[in-house]
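Notes continue from the previous slide.

Worked example: a multi-chain complex. Inputs as given:
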Amino acid sequence: MQTLTQRLANPTRFMELSGSVLPWIAGAAAVVIAYGLYLAFYVAPPDYQQGETARIMYIHVPCAWLAMAVYAMVAMSAFGFLVFRHPLADVSAKTAVPLGAAFTFLALVTGSLWGRPTWGTYWVWDARLTSVLILFFLYLGLMALRSSIEDESLASKLTAILALVGIVMLPIIKFSVDFGNTLHQPASVLRVGGPTIDTAMLTPLLVMALGFTLMFVAMHFKAMRNEILRRRVRALQLAQVEKAQASQLAAAE
Amino acid sequence: MSAFLALLKRDLMLSVRQGGALGTALGFYMLVVTLLPLGLGQDLNLLSRIAPGILWIALLLAALLSLGRVFSSDHEDGTLDVLATGRMPLEMVVGAKALAHWISTGIPLALTAPVLGLMLNLDIAVYPLLMATMLVGTPAVSFIGAVGAALTLRSYRGGLLIALLVLPLYVPTLIFGMAAVNGLLGVSGTSAAMLILAALSLTSVVLCPFAAAAALRVQMQ
Amino acid sequence: MSAFLALLKRDLMLSVRQGGALGTALGFYMLVVTLLPLGLGQDLNLLSRIAPGILWIALLLAALLSLGRVFSSDHEDGTLDVLATGRMPLEMVVGAKALAHWISTGIPLALTAPVLGLMLNLDIAVYPLLMATMLVGTPAVSFIGAVGAALTLRSYRGGLLIALLVLPLYVPTLIFGMAAVNGLLGVSGTSAAMLILAALSLTSVVLCPFAAAAALRVQMQ
Amino acid sequence: MQLVAENLVLERGNRKVANDVSFTLEGGSGLVLTGPNGSGKSTLLRALAGYLRPASGSVRILGIGGSDGDTGESCEVGEVCHFVGHLDGIKSHLTAAENLTFWATYLSDRADSGHSVAHRVYDALEVFALNALADIPAGYMSAGQKRRLGLARLLVAHRPLWLLDEPTVSLDTGSADILVKAINRHLSDGGMAIVATHLPLAIEPARGISLVRKEAQA
Amino acid sequence: MQLVAENLVLERGNRKVANDVSFTLEGGSGLVLTGPNGSGKSTLLRALAGYLRPASGSVRILGIGGSDGDTGESCEVGEVCHFVGHLDGIKSHLTAAENLTFWATYLSDRADSGHSVAHRVYDALEVFALNALADIPAGYMSAGQKRRLGLARLLVAHRPLWLLDEPTVSLDTGSADILVKAINRHLSDGGMAIVATHLPLAIEPARGISLVRKEAQA
Ligand code: HEM
Ligand SMILES: Nc1ncnc2c1ncn2[C@@H]1O[C@H](COP(=O)(O)OP(=O)(O)OP(=O)(O)O)[C@@H](O)[C@H]1O
Ligand SMILES: Nc1ncnc2c1ncn2[C@@H]1O[C@H](COP(=O)(O)OP(=O)(O)OP(=O)(O)O)[C@@H](O)[C@H]1O
Ligand SMILES: [Mg+2]
Ligand SMILES: [Mg+2]
């Protein structure tokens, strides 16, 4: 008997299944984010130090979390592809990279925008900010390597290896606030010993985080479906070229 | 002329095909700038003070290192031999390839500098001037670099050896580029520095192809 | 074992023959450090303050860029195919080549740093520590770099693409190297940073050959 | 000693270039691969050497190991073969002798321990008429001289299986004869050789396999 | 039209590899260079193409230029020849058609203005049986396919003189025939061809020059 993952890993099954759940996930993401925004702007109190600007947090923090979570997912997919040689794992890794890069970019931009009023500058070179920037470069490296190789299956394997090597950076980013002096807030939610943040702010934050995660899942499914279709079209085209070639060669000989 | 354009077009095409030359040079540029604060500490005053110099030097390195295989890849697969037959002189071949390098690398690098300036806390007022000096100065970078690439055609050390040969030749460009940006010399001094920079670029565009072609010829035996 | 030594010896021999690998990396190192005062102005206080960071970063670049063709030159002339036959696993091949790179480039670069420190007006008291961190840290540079070189075996962007892939991975080495030199953390902090640096090097010596060999294998089809 | 290839299916960029190739090669005999350009000779050789993973099927070599204490079970082909492809594996900055000395040390096996490295290198240079060029950097050699140097590698270390991809390219007739003699001597010593070629070669005893260009497959 | 080589002395690394070579080649006829490995065939061809400066002697081509208004005086051989050496001059990142299109544009001469670039490329691909591979990157081709693509360059632009260094390397017999036919057609159209080869090739009309290995000279 096949396990659930095995059944899901069949591209055809995946297309059917993702096709039917995609609208629901997308809808849920929209609803949760809308509710989260409502909570963030109308219910949550302004920060006693930073005032209204603190509301950027409800976008910034989910983006920052996803930036790291997506990389973990890319690495897991890469592992799955290298070990089990399953094409779907590669599709997943390939399509998650640009999304992860986008979330990282958003975390950087929202952070910078927030930094201007609170720290008086768009950018400081502390460990946390720099390490997120480095994560962004890792994503860029994955994309650059993949695009630099013409042979698709080769490109997949090489990027998978790089993704696995890069995973050593994740703990460094996560714990960068803990060593060295930094302007950035230390973790107050995802920390050993439970969150230290006020519930009035924690709830909207968690709702937004959930909404963003759902949004990521929806976009990832959509991108994966596109990629699978693209590969099918390519295979068909190749087969046609092949046929034409074969008949031509036969005629030539 | 059509041969010149064909070569220019092919080189630009290859620079796109072969794994985004552009993206890589830009990525290198950004990474070098990112590493600096890690090495120097995060003192923003310090950083904004050294920013223009750092940006210029990192640009020189990124442009230079992407030049490495401009000729040697053509030499290794026999293309250079064929390019040397026909009526277009080798000097024009060098010109086309250096021009392609400027378009595909020099210009984009110059245009990225402001973004990096932001991260180094560089005064926004300096951006237009910085970009202008870079746009005016990078032709010299590409054409002088081509001489280095030609000289190291058959050397296995490629990239680094070129750097060694060519970086000293970049000193005038760097000095006048910095002089123009820093505006140490006042407004009239700035425009004088820009003029000199332009003269440097023009001179290298005219003279370097001859040196590079001569270097290629002796190595094509 | 004799195969490992034979390969190590050949790589060292080639690095001497092929136009002085060593000289080139050193020359690059020196040039970058020399260009800095030109770009930054010759404020000696400023220079001596940024010296350790600059020396480390320039070392990373010089080491990295000399790695570019470690595998690809062997690939292009068919040597890699032959190295892969026989009983020595590809992991050991990678190990031998990375080790050769460390010996021929990493160590000399670390030993040159004080000379350049002199030019940057660096406090003499810092020299032993600076050299020690570099000696301890450079194995990580060579072995992590080998992964980058293996990943870009067939890419035509060589040098720069490696830099893009590998520089982010050098960040921990750079950070702890700087932490150890700056002694910001006090004596005990310095030795802790040194230990971490050594751990980074050891880990990369052990793990990187596997990643690099895997990358080579998929490209040797 | 026996090389067994079973139902090999080889793919290049998602296209099948060999479908269901099976053969057995006994120690002491050769196999000549022929076929038009693009029919998959090089691909097959690379798959046999283990560089290319077959889409399905297997290659095994049986009965090796008497000499170095293996169990005599099947083992990886890559470990017991010489592969000479389109590229020579020669460093142009090293002299002919240095190139061969490196390969002799790197590739040497317990079976070679009878002869010193220098001795084996000298013999190999001798056979391929390269002694006059021993101290000349390979970068200064003509195409055929370089090819001969690449082939001399076959003699500096013992390997039961030789995989040769168009070995006579650039060789003059005299050199081609030398090569054929070396192959035949290897076979008569109980070795095996698989040679892809477009020219008729007097390899004995040898069977031939002729590859055809594959039709398109979905 | 006439190619005149007079008293050519060629040196490689301070060693003479050709001493006092002289010949005249008339339009419409070929010349086949033979000789053992290292006898200087490639060196002679490179000297004719102008890559290598002869230690003494001269190469001139006379009577070219009726077509493009030159004075009919002698001119540089490099400008009017096709050179195909051991390397193909093919970019593996470009497809077959893109490679040829580039060469057709780059090399085209006034004599070619009758046919469009696309047309010439199409014809050349056709002749060398490469049309099926037109849109495949050259990096994916087999050794022989790549060689054929390198040779197809001969047909995308007109040049009176062809210099070919072992052009049949890696070609199967069918492809070698195609090449010989193309050379013979070029000769019958009044062109000239100089071919270095180790195999007998049916080039007509052609004289042969056989080089011998030079003894070491101080
Ligand atoms: C470009 C600049 C910034 C970047 C790259 C960045 C990055 C990050 C990252 C990666 C996290 C997730 C931390 C974790 O879960 O451990 C985070 C969380 C957070 N950031 Fe930022 N940040 C930036 C600027 C700012 C600024 C200016 C502020 C406000 C002063 C800020 C406030 C926060 C807060 C409050 C959290 C939540 C911490 C927690 O509760 O776990 N960030 N940021
Ligand atoms: N770059 C070089 N530097 C010094 N000597 C060289 C160089 N290239 C070739 N030679 C020497 O010149 C001689 C002639 O070489 P050439 O390549 O012309 O021979 P060839 O007739 O083409 O041989 P083959 O049939 O092997 O291709 C050889 O002895 C060779 O060693
Ligand atoms: N790296 C590659 N990627 C994709 N396809 C390839 C690759 N290498 C070869 N091919 C294709 O595989 C087929 C077989 O190629 P192969 O090199 O095995 O042929 P061959 O029999 O050795 O030909 P030749 O006689 O020309 O050397 C060819 O059609 C070729 O186009
Ligand atoms: Mg082949
Ligand atoms: Mg030759």
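Summary box: The CA atoms of residues 137 and 203 of chain A lie 32 Å apart. The mean pLDDT of chain A is 83.
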